[in-house]
């Protein structure tokens, strides 16, 4: 995040997909609960936007996801936002100079198949 805090989202725990999120403060070494995303996911991307919110896109929850959501560190709230055109995980997301986020590559529902750009 813009203040140096690190947002950790989702993952897997003993085969269960996680919706939980935590904040890590490297200056104190402390972890804090950041609530739950609306969808459990792992192998997603996280992109800090110009306004300080974090876009969580795609990932996997048994199947590849096309959903995305925003985390607002100033309120601690999660909000669903628009869907991507294709479900994907293991992709990349880059914030461009115009503020838009470019999502590229990844794997769709078929194992080992890359989403075409």
Features:
single chain; 117 residues; mainly beta; 44% strand
Task: List strands and helices in order, with pairings.
Elements: E1 6-9, E2 12-13, E3 16-17, E4 20-25, E5 30-36, E6 45-48, E7 54-57, E8 60-61, E9 63-64, E10 68-72, E11 77-81, E12 92-95, E13 101-104
Antiparallel strand pairs: 1-4, 2-3, 4-5, 6-7, 7-10, 8-9, 10-11, 12-13
In short:
The protein has strands at residues 6-9, 12-13, 16-17, 20-25, 30-36, 45-48, 54-57, 60-61, 63-64, 68-72, 77-81, 92-95, 101-104. The protein has 117 residues and is mainly β.
Number of strands: 13
Strand count, sense and barrel status of the largest sheet are: 4 strands, antiparallel
- For the CA atoms, what is the radius of gyration? 14 Å
Question: Average pLDDT across residues?
Answer: 93
Strand order of the largest sheet: 6-7-10-11
Task: Give helix % range.
Answer: under 10%
| Succession of helices and strands | EEEEEEEEEEEEE
Strand content: 35-45%
Number of domains: 1
Q: How many helices does DSSP assign?
A: 0
Distance, first to last CA: 28 Å
The poorly predicted ranges are none
> How would you sum up the global shape?
globular
**Oligomer description:** single chain
By secondary-structure content and strand pairing, the structural class works out as mainly beta
Structure, explained:
The protein has 117 residues and is mainly β. The chain has strands spanning 6-9, 12-13, 16-17, 20-25, 30-36, 45-48, 54-57, 60-61, 63-64, 68-72, 77-81, 92-95, 101-104. It has one domain (6-104). The radius of gyration is 14 Å and the shape is globular. The relative contact order is 0.18. The model has no long low-confidence stretch (mean pLDDT 93). It has no helices and 13 strands. A 4-stranded antiparallel sheet has the order 6-7-10-11, with no helix packed on it. Strands 1-4-5 form a 3-stranded antiparallel sheet, with no helix packed on it. Strands 2-3 form a two-stranded antiparallel ribbon.
């Amino acid at each position: 995040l813009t203040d140096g805090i690190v947002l950790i989202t989702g993952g897997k725990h003993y085969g269960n997909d996680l919706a939980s999120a935590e904040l890590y403060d490297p200056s104190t070494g402390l972890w804090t609960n950041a609530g739950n995303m609306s969808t459990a996911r792992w192998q997603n991307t996280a992109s800090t936007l110009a306004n300080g919110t974090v876009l969580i896109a795609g990932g996997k929850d048994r199947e590849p996801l096309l959903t995305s959501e925003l985390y607002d560190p100033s309120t601690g709230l999660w909000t669903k936002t628009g869907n991507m055109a294709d479900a994907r995980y293991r992709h990349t997301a880059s914030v461009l100079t115009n503020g838009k986020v470019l999502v590229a590559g990844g794997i769709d529902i078929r194992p080992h198949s890359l989403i075409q750009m």
